[in-house]
């Protein structure tokens, strides 16, 4: 009985694989369109950001330090977060909770009163290249204006400001925007493969009547879904692998993580995308409606609300809350970390769990909505 079930499943997988090979639109969507997107995002895009989270660490507490902290709160570009220690702030930077750190050494106020030379250190996260560049310019400008104001109001320093602002960029030291944008484009590639492609193919079967023939066959809904799932899963993984190779060898994007971590995270996101495509096609049963549904409910959110292009922290509150229901948000964060930083499992594990949970919920809904028999 079990062997017969597996034979039926294997026959469905072979049937779907042959259909993919015979359909030129599958090949174009899986391999040509991703390359076009990679070139567009690799060569033609530049971005802005607001409300960037900046950590602030000071080894002393004084009115002068408080005045400097308040100077960062007069601009809508920066959201200042206070940390008790440098180690705590650096952990927040590595985990992506902040984009930079301003560090004041102990004795800052004393040296300022005596016009001695001092150093303010700025550490920025180079994964978000455009944000890191703008953040550096803002911090330098804010500190420079603050020093000039201190000199004018209190005569605390000389006209030549005795402070050096030392900056250091982590992860993406060259601040190439391409290094941040190309991992985001891979997210859109996988959303196309997983959602648009599967939704159109399954909807086409409903239109042509072949889906009704499959429902009349002695197979269950789960067999039919998994028979269609497996070929498109491997198609998506292959397309992702090609995109990663192009990103690394053509665009010279650094890859500091491991293939194993990339495979696990990509699988979780791809399964969620495939499930969304099946759900759209099951509900619409029409290619035109399926393409519109994939565009509205999958592709657009992956572009607009994933953080791949637009900084999530700059969005209104209710939009930021909405982004948590889309798996692309977690995939963008994880993929950029793999490229720029390496394997940070404290970040990967929660993202894997959430994406897998979303995929499971979507597949359950598909199983519920897929008819068990012809009506």
Protein described:
The structure is a single chain. The chain has 375 residues and is an alpha/beta fold. The chain has helices at 2-22, 24-43, 63-71, 86-94, 108-113, 129-154, 177-208, 210-216, 221-249, 259-284, 287-304, 317-322, 327-340, 345-369, and strands spanning 52-58, 78-83, 100-104, 118-125, 163-170. It folds into 2 domains: 2-44 and 177-369, no CATH class; 52-170, abc type-2 transporter like fold (3-Layer(aba) Sandwich), CATH 3.40.1710.10. It has a 5-stranded mixed beta sheet, sandwiched between helices. Helix 6 (129-154) links the parallel strand 4 and strand 5. The mean pLDDT is 78.
Keywords:
abc type-2 transporter like fold; 2 domains; 375 residues; 5-stranded mixed sheet; alpha/beta
- Strand proportion: 5-15%
* Total domains: 2
- The radius of gyration computed from the alpha-carbon positions, rounded to a whole number of angstroms, is 26 Å
Largest sheet: spatial strand order: 2-1-3-4-5
Poorly predicted tracts of residues: none
Distance between the termini: 27 Å
Q: Can you write the helix and strand succession as a string?
A: HHEHEHEHEHEHHHHHHHH
Overall morphology = elongated
The biggest beta sheet reads: 5 strands, mixed
Number of strands: 5
Our count of helices gives 14
Let me know the average pLDDT: 78
Structural class: alpha/beta
Helix share, percent: 55-70%
């Amino acid at each position: 009985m079990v062997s017969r079930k597996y034979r039926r499943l294997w026959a469905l997988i072979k049937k779907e694989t042959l259909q993919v090979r015979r359909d030129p639109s599958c090949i174009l969507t899986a391999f040509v369109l991703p390359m076009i997107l990679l070139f567009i995002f690799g060569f033609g895009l530049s971005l802005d950001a607001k409300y960037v989270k900046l950590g602030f660490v000071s080894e002393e507490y004084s009115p002068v330090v408080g005045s400097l902290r308040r100077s960062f709160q007069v601009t809508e570009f920066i959201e200042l977060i206070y940390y008790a220690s440098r180690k705590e702030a650096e952990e927040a930077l590595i985990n992506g909770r902040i984009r930079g750190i301003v560090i004041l050494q102990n004795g800052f106020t004393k040296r300022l009163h005596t016009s001695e030379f001092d150093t303010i250190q700025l550490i920025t996260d180079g994964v978000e290249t455009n944000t890191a560049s703008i953040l550096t310019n803002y911090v330098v400008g804010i500190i420079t204006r603050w020093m000039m104001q201190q000199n004018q109001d209190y005569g605390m320093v000389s006209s030549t400001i005795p402070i050096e602002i030392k900056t250091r960029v982590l992860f993406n030291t060259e601040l190439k925007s391409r290094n941040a944008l190309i991992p985001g484009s891979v997210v859109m590639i996988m959303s196309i493969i997983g959602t648009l492609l599967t939704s159109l193919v399954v909807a086409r079967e409903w239109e042509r009547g072949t889906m009704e023939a499959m429902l009349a066959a002695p197979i269950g809904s789960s067999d039919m879904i998994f028979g269609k799932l497996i070929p498109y899963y491997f198609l998506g993984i292959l397309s992702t692998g090609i995109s990663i190779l192009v990103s690394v060898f053509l665009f010279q994007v650094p890859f500091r993580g491991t293939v194993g971590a990339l495979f696990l995270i990509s699988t979780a996101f791809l399964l969620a995308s495939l499930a969304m495509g099946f759900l759209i096609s099951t509900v619409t049963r029409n290619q035109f409606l399926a393409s519109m549904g994939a565009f509205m409910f999958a592709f657009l959110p992956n572009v607009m609300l994933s953080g791949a292009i637009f900084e999530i922290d700059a969005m209104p509150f209710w939009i930021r809350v909405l982004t948590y229901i889309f798996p692309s948000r977690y995939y963008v964060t994880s993929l950029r970390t793999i490229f720029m930083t390496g394997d940070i499992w404290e970040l990967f594990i929660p993202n894997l769990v959430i994406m897998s949970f979303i995929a499971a919920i979507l597949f359950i809904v598909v199983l519920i909505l897929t008819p068990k028999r012809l009506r």
